[in-house]
Amino acid sequence: MSQRVAILWINLFYNLRRQQEAELKLIEEETARRVEEDIQRKVEKSLSSEEIKLEIQRRLEEGRKRLIDEVADQLEKEKEAALIEARQKEEQARKEKEDLERMLEENRRRIEESQRKEALEQQRREEERYRELEDLQRQKEEAMRRKKQQEEEERVKQMKLLGKNKSRPKLSFALGSK
């Protein structure tokens, strides 16, 4: 982006310079025309006196030199001002870029922190669910163990009642006299 800004400033500078050169040319032409008219009048008045011709030529040269120097000074000042402004804009663009990068980094950090918290929360929920499933499994196993134990106790009770496995004492009925 700073290259585009610099290119735009350079183009602007060159356009200004061309415009100023055109204005300078117009000024020079206008000045030359006026000087020529003035010279023509003075020449006509003085009937082509050599001394007047030399004075006109000297003043014309001085005016041209002064005008060229002023335009050159003005162009130099504008060039310096354009360079300073281009540097300031480049610095501003750099600062804006740094600010944007800093904001992007902060957003990335916040997203990562949010994702990390979400992952920890998900892990906590999964661990809680796992503990709940383990508790359910233990309860089912405990219920099955109690049921088996109860069934075993029932079976043992029935065996005693039915007299199987010789677990019931034998009763003997004797008819006898004594």
Automatic annotation (TrEMBL):
GO molecular function terms listed in the Swiss-Prot or TrEMBL record: cadherin binding
Mind telling me which InterPro entries this protein's record contains? ARGLU1
Q: Write down any Gene Ontology CC term.
A: mitochondrion
Against Pfam families, the record matches this protein to: ARGLU
Record region (Disordered):
106-178
Give me the stretches of Basic and acidic residues compositional bias.
106-144
Name of protein? Arginine and glutamate-rich protein 1
